[in-house]
Amino acid sequence: MKAQLRRHRIETPSWAYGNSGTRFKVYAQAGVPRTPQEKIADAAKVHELTGVAPSIALHIPWDRVDDYPALARFATDHGIAVGAINPNVFQEDDYRLGSVCNPDPKIRRKAIDHLLECVDIGIRTGSSILSLWFADGTNYPGQDSIRARQDRLADALSEVYGQLPGDMRMLVEYKLFEPSFYTMDLPDWGTSFAHCVNLGPQAQVLVDTGHHAPGTNIEFIVAVLRRAGKLGGFHFNSRFYADDDLMVGAADPFQLFRIMHEIVAADALAPEAGVAFMLDQCHNIEAKVPAMIRSVLNVQEATAKALLVDQEALAAAQAAGDVLAANAVLMDAYNTDVRPLLAELRAEDGLDPDPIGAYRRSGYQEKIEAERVGGSAMGWGA
Ligand code: PSV
Ligand code: MN
Question: How much is the pTM?
């Protein structure tokens, strides 16, 4: 169990270290990064204290730099790597009616060119994942042809897929609603799955845990996608209502455990299984670096509990049709306090057993608040 936990990898997102908020207010916090390099430094701190967060996802143009190999070297020098590259085709006026599904071919071309630019950035940073999310959709019945938009989406994805190097995967993320309210062009896992199947083996579905209707059984989706070889990865976060982007494991730790149980049961935890465990969160009111540490620990705790499930006892109870015994096997694991075991694991690996306490004692927060003065803090729209 410890060996599996040691190999587990959780990726943090660059955008979570910047200022964020709701459409009502973005609250500025002291010490927030002003450059992609400062975001990398924060992500490296999270990895230094947890030992399981060795990469950072980038969002382009938020993390645009002149020299991407130099940025990747900067990350390596700080002990982490560049992870998924996320193109941004949702923040320009041109994209009011969509990006790759826009009725205007010139705007579609612009969006596809940006996706191709991100493939190139991935090559230059040593990334193996192009992570796609489209805000595309419509607000009113009749606004555009649902079928034509699917055709445009398929054409764009296939052009970009054709440019992927052999060792790069394209992950296609779906979202039920927002920013569009009538149709989203990729609203659910089935639509993403259908496009990925048509594209080929390098295209897989990305499950963002905040992108479903309330009550959706996400672990079922995970199990089905994994079985079909199409589970590319996660954007973990938690939600009470819609796409709240709160800390993973905060709203529903039991759901996170159920998801990780499906991962463990399908032998999909190890890095070579090819499932990317990424966070996609916004820390609007809480301090960002310790919130990210808390989130990584929450995923690690859910994973440890999933690893505790007695698979043999579970299989026996299931085969015998013993409903209560099977359920009890899962609940025994979920109700086990794994924190002492994880503290022991960290101590064995030379880490502080209490990463949050270690962060408080490290003086890092005071240091970034003192140093990161002047310039403009990164955040939404930056
Ligand atoms: C959209 O809601 C999303 O989940 C996508 O992954 C974006 O890249 C990310 O949030 C940041 O806006
Ligand atoms: Mn996401």
Answer: 0.98
64 CA distance to ligand 2 middle (Å): 19
Distance of CA 88 from the midpoint of ligand 1 (Å): 9
Nearest protein CA to atom 6 of ligand 1, as residue: 133
pLDDT tens, position by position, 186-240 = 999 999 999 999 999 999 999 999 999 999 999 999 999 999 999 999 999 999 9
| Whether the CB of 245 sits within 6 Å of ligand 1 | no
Task: Decide if 68 contacts 27 (C-beta within 8 A).
Answer: no
Query: What CA–CA distance (Å, rounded) separates 192 from 131?
Result: 12
Integer Cα distance of 206 and 193 in angstroms: 9
Residue type, 187: P
Angle CA(172)–CA(304)–CA(314) in degrees, nearest 5?
A: 90
Per-residue pLDDT tens digits for 94-146: 999 999 999 999 999 999 999 999 999 999 999 999 999 999 999 999 999 99
SS3 content of the chain, % helix, strand, coil (to 5): 50, 15, 40
Q: Output the CA 173–ligand 2 centroid distance in Å.
A: 7
Q: What fold does the segment set 2-309 form as a domain?
A: TIM Barrel (3.20.20)
